[in-house]
Task: inverse folding
């Protein structure tokens, strides 16, 4: 399956936008990704091994946090995983 | 340095005037040119999902970002930055902007909109290698006037 890498993380994938991995679950795919590109690990996961709060991972059109199986969700070769850090901000302190 | 054509520069400023008194937001597509900076070739307007406090907050839905990233890919462009407006606030990044900026290497463009008119537009590149050492760097904006004079005139005719 394909994993799409956002611009800032391509520094760690040799500039690749799309990385192909095998993996039967979302977790398996992410493990393979970070095994191939170890420097990605610290950017994606916090010290507890959990996805950083601002890192969104979408399986096709679905946020994996809202899938019933979450990271254990099964994947197929035709699926696409997209890693997309959040975009937000504001003009004043609240 | 952030480079963009005059019509794109005007379009992102106009977006902030349209959404005033709320914040506008959008995505900058283009190419990162090593040693030079981000070169914007297209801007994509995004919806602000923060309808609860749209006057001082913005947020782009990840699903919309994925769609925009797919659009970029099909044109061999990359997401190189984002823009938003500060209604009746200076064109400087806020603590919220900094805390919620995660796209290292990308440019964050902010336009101050005072009483509905776009005033200043500044760009800040997010530098660093991780969340822990990230920082905003003031970057100059180079506007290519020549490329778009014709289009501007066309628009007025
Ligand atoms: Zn802001």
Result:
């Amino acid at each position: 399956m394909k994993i799409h890498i956002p611009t800032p993380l391509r520094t760690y994938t040799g500039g690749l936008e799309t990385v192909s991995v095998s993996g039967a679950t979302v977790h398996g795919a992410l493990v393979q990704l970070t095994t191939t590109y170890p420097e990605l690990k610290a950017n994606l996961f916090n010290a507890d091994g959990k996805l950083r709060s601002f890192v969104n991972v979408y399986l096709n059109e679905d946020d994996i946090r809202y899938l019933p199986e979450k990271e254990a969700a099964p994947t197929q070769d035709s699926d696409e995983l997209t890693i997309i850090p959040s975009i937000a901000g504001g003009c004043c302190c609240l | 340095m952030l480079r963009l054509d005059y019509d794109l520069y005007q379009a992102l400023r106009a977006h902030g005037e349209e959404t005033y008194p709320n914040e506008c937001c959008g995505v900058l597509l283009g190419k990162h040119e090593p040693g030079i900076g981000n070169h914007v070739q297209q801007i994509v307007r995004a919806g602000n999902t923060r309808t609860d406090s749209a006057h001082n907050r913005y947020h782009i839905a990840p699903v919309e970002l994925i769609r925009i990233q797919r659009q970029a890919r099909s044109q061999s462009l990359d997401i190189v930055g984002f823009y938003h407006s500060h209604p009746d606030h200076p064109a400087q990044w806020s603590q919220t902007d900094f805390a919620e900026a995660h796209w290292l290497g990308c440019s964050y463009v902010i336009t101050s909109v005072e009483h509905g008119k776009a005033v200043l537009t500044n760009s800040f590149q997010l530098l660093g290698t991780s969340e822990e050492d990230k920082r905003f760097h003031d970057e100059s904006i180079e506007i290519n006037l020549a490329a778009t004079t014709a289009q501007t005139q066309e628009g007025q005719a």
Q: What stands out?
A: The helical segments of chain B are 6-19, 62-74, 95-99, 149-156. The two ends of chain B are 33 Å apart (CA to CA). The pocket of zinc ion is lined by residues A 89-91; B 84, 86, 94, 97, 110 (CB under 6 Å).
